[in-house]
Amino acid sequence: MKIIHNDISSTQDKEGAITFLFNGYVYQIGTLDYDDEGWFSRQTVEDYENDRDNHETPTGWGPENVVAFRFLKDPY
Question: What pTM did the predictor assign?
Answer without folding.
Answer: 0.65
